[in-house]
Amino acid sequence: MVAQNVFFGIMALVMIFAALKVVSTKNVVHAALWLVVVLGGVAGQFLLLGAEFIGITQVLVYIGAVVVLLLFGVMLTKASLGEEADLNMPKRALPAVIAALMFGVMTYALIDTFRDTELPRESVTNAAAVSDSIFADYIVPFEAVSVLLLAALIGAVVVARKE
Amino acid sequence: MLLVQFLLLSSVLFCIGIYGVLARKNGVMVLMSIELILNAVNINLVAFGTMTSNIAGEVFALFVIAIAAAEVGVGLAIVLLIFRNRRSVDLSSIDSMKG
Q1: Would you state the pLDDT for residue A123?
Q2: For A1-84, CATH number?
Q3: In angstroms, rounded to a whole number, what is the distance separating the alpha carbons of residues A53 and A128?
Q4: Which among A20, A28, A152 has the least Cβ separation from residue B29?
């Protein structure tokens, strides 16, 4: 248990630092690479929670596909690869206040409600259990997601193609 | 492990993502911040699923991952279209629908 908590703490600190870099760095490509650190940390947290299939999917889909897509977006919109001065809104105090306020409210509510809730010790869910659940209980949402992915694919092609 | 440590981590990531969405000017950077928000939600779903020993949390986290992939695809297509029409992805200059 101690080892898990130490691992959680290290990963959480790295993730928070990387997330702050994502929203503060002046270089678009560096932001995408810091995002990889955050997404990898999230995959580690999933493994720590015993959700092995989600952890692997996170690495495959997010680090493998979404980040590459974002980097393509950076390239196709001709962002300069070096530092860029004009990346942030001129007034950033209000967003920071809003985010801090939300964090304060959520922290208070979470600590107030779940202060002593322990997670179960042995709770690894394997891929077989997840797939059983998807293809039995959640087959309708699963099919809806597949239609949504097809619609998003066609929509993206239609929107992005030249006349 | 306590449940609240995962929930607090996810709320930190969520608020950083909110700040990024509001403070960034570049369309691609806003999409990156949205990915931060969606990942925070996923940590929450899996943590609550583990707490209640219910597989539904993980299944819905998978659905969120699939929808996030669709969202970033369509979002980037829109950003590319804006870039093609205006030669910039500066979101503060997109105000033609402002009353």
Answers
A1: 72
A2: 1.20.120.1200
A3: 9
A4: A28
The alpha carbon of residue A145 is apart from the nearest alpha carbon of chain B, in Å, by 7
> Which domains are seen in chain B, by residue range?
8-89 (1.10.287.3510)
Does pLDDT of A84 surpass 80?
A: no
Using CA atoms, how far residue B55 sits from A123, B2, B38, B40, B87, in Å, is 11, 19, 19, 18, 47
Quick check: B15 and A100 CB within 8 A? yes
Cβ-proximal residues to A113 (8 Å cutoff; 6+ apart), any chain? none
Max CA distance (Å), chain A: 60
Interface test with chain B among A10, A15, A53, A77, by most B beta carbons within 10 Å: A77
List, in sequence order, every residue forming a beta bridge with B52; answer none if it has no partner.
none
pTM reported for the whole predicted model: 0.91
Non-local (6+) Cβ contacts of A20 within 8 A are: B16
CB A102 to CB B18 under 8 A?
yes
Q: Is the pLDDT of residue A38 over 70?
A: yes
Site of tokens 């996170």: A58
Share of chain A above pLDDT 90, in %: 61
